[in-house]
Structures are given as C-alpha cells and as structure tokens.
Design brief:
Largest sheet: none
Oligomer: single chain
Membrane topology: Multi-pass membrane protein
Helix content: over 70%
Subcellular location: Endomembrane system
Protein name: FAR-17a/AIG1-like protein
Radius of gyration: 18 Å
Shape: globular
Number of helices: 8
Keywords: Membrane, Transmembrane, Transmembrane helix
Distance between the termini: 20 Å
Length: 213
Amino acid sequence: MAFSLWPVLLHCSAATIMGWGFHWLNQLPLISKQYGWHYPALTVLGLHVAFLAMIVGLLVDFAPSLKALRTLKRALIMIAMPIEAVITSIYWSLITFFPNLIKMKATADGAPIPFLPLSVDLSLHAVPGIALVADFLLLERKYSQRTVARYSIPTMVACTVAYGAWAEWCARMNGYFMYPFLTENPFTIRLVIYAGSAIVGYISFRILNAIHS
C-alpha cells in the first residue's frame, strides 16, 4: 500500500487539537476538587477513546501491513464514533437552546465556572466526532453486516452501563453530576436518558455505516 501524507496530517492534527483541549480543562476550578477528576464527564471519556483511535490510526499510517493495529483501530472507532455522536448531538443541542441544562454555573463552594472559549469547545465537542467520521468514511472500509450484528449493540450497551454506573458513583461521592440535566432528574428519568443516549449512538453508527460506500 502506497504511503499517503494526508491521513498522517488528519491523525496528527486531530490528536494535537484534542490533547490541547484536554490540557486546557486543567484551568477549570472544579476539576482538581472533585472525585474522579475530569472523568465523570462523558465528553472527556469519549475524547480519550477518540484520541487513542487517532494515535493508533497514525501508527497504521506508517505500518499498514500490521493487521493487529488496524483491527485495534477499527474496534476503537466502533466504540468512539457512537459515543461522539451522543456527545455532539446532546451537547450542541443543549448549549444552544438550554445552556443551563448542560453547563454548571459554579462549584460546590461557589467558585464560578466560566463558559469554555469557542476554540476549546470545538476541540472537545466537535473535532473528535468530525475526525472519527472523516477517518471512517475516507480511510476505512465499512463494517460487515456480520460485525455490526455481532458487536454494535453489545458494545453500545456495555459503554452505556459502564458510564451510567460510573456517573452515578461519582455523583454519589461529589453530591452532583457533571451535567445539570442529570442532577435535576430522579434516577428513573436518568435511566431513560442513558437508554435514549444509547439508542442515539447506535442509530448514528448504523446510519454512518450504511452510507459508507
């Protein structure tokens, strides 16, 4: 397979932007004081998986004959792409129309939490999803019907259960969720939110795989 420069540029630039956005989060007053540090936020967890997919993608660019690397990359994309679809759809909808449901105004001790600069916002809530979709549609082959049938639902269910359990535990330790729309709803409604998010991620993945040429 002939070496191509533009996939390297995609993976390097996306990983750099995501890493910069994550580093910027250390400036927020909430992070160092709460249980779980950055990681009660689905945004940060999804960012890490997307970042890892870009790094593995970069390795594949230089060693395309290593089947294990390509298999790992495709597994990471199957995990990260639906998660980023959930993050992107929920975040931009709420921050545009109902910002109080997605943005915490202050820490527990009253320290204000500023709005993210647009550049940071995009690095966390847009670049990961865009990079993953571009990688999948332009550099990868679509997932086979057998792979989709065997792995897509279990993967989405496992991610949803794992995050839901982790978010609930962190909220129990901190006294709040990272997202006000979870804090303000009872457990039964939160279960519906988790399930609805999983459905959004699954449908998004199926649509992207279906339109892949």
